[in-house]
Amino acid sequence: MVTHVPAEAHGDERGALLAFVEAQRGALRRSVLGLAEEQAASRPSASELSLSGLLKHVAETELNWLRMAQQRPNEKARTQETWSDSFRLVEGETIPEMLAFWESVAKETEEFIASVPSLNDTFPLPPAPWFPKDGAVSMRWLLVHLVEEIGRHAGHADIIRESLDGKGAFDLVAEEQGGGSWG
C-alpha cells in the first residue's frame, strides 16, 4: 500500500473498513492525475482497459453493490449489450464527470454503512452462476469486497499509468501532495 491507512478510523471497525475502501479509491483516482482525456482513454497494451474506463467501471460497480445492499434497483444497471460501455467513456462523458459521479456514490456508500444497525446485517445476492443459490452476504463482506474489487483495478491502473509516462504510485502520491517525484 502506498499510503498509510490508520488501523482504526473513527474508533471502530466501520471506520477502518471505510478507510481502506477510500485508500483504494484514492489510488485509482490518482492514476489520472495530470493526464489529458485522450491519454487517460488510451490503451497502451493488448488489454481493453484504459484509466478513464477503469474509473467508470469501478464507480458503476460500487453503485451496483450499494444498490444490492440497499435492496433498491440500480439506475445504471448494465445489460449484456451495454456491459462493454462500463469500461470506456462514451460520447459526452469526461473524467471530471466520472470523478464527481464516483464521489457521490462514495458518499452514499459511507452514509449507508453508517446507517446500518450492524455490519452483520445481510442482503441477498442476485441469481448468478458465480453466487451460491439463495446466497446472502454481510455489510462487512461488502466493504471487504469493495477493497478487493477497487484494489484489483487500482493495480491495473498502476501498470497502465506507468506504461503511459513512467509515473508510479509513489510519484503520483507525491504529486498529489504538491511535491515532485518520489525518491
Distance between termini? 16 Å
Q: Please state how the strands of the largest beta sheet are arranged side by side.
A: 1-2
Number of helices: 6
Number of strands: 2
Structural class: mainly alpha
Roughly how many Å is the radius of gyration?
17 Å
What proportion of the residues is helical, as a percent range? 40-55%
Mean pLDDT over the full residue set? 92
Strand and helix order: HHHHEEHH
Low-confidence spans: pLDDT under 50, at least 5 residues?
none
Name the shape in a single word: globular
The main β sheet shows up as: 2 strands, antiparallel
Question: What do these coordinates show?
Answer:
The chain has 183 residues and is mainly alpha-helical. The protein is 54% helix and 3% strand. It has helices at residues 13-30, 37-41, 51-70, 95-115, 139-165, 169-176; strands spanning 122-124, 136-138. It has a two-stranded antiparallel ribbon with strand order 1-2. Helix 1 runs antiparallel to helix 4 (95-115) and helix 3 (51-70) packs parallel to helix 4.
Short description:
The chain is built from 6 helices and 2 strands. The protein has helices at 13-30, 37-41, 51-70, 95-115, 139-165, 169-176; strands spanning 122-124, 136-138.
What is the topological layout?
Blueprint: H1 13-30, H2 37-41, H3 51-70, H4 95-115, E1 122-124, E2 136-138, H5 139-165, H6 169-176
Antiparallel strand pairs: 1-2
Helix pairs in contact: 1-4, 1-5, 3-4, 3-5
Comma- or semicolon-separated keywords:
6 helices, two-stranded antiparallel ribbon, mainly alpha, 2 strands, 54% helix, 183 residues
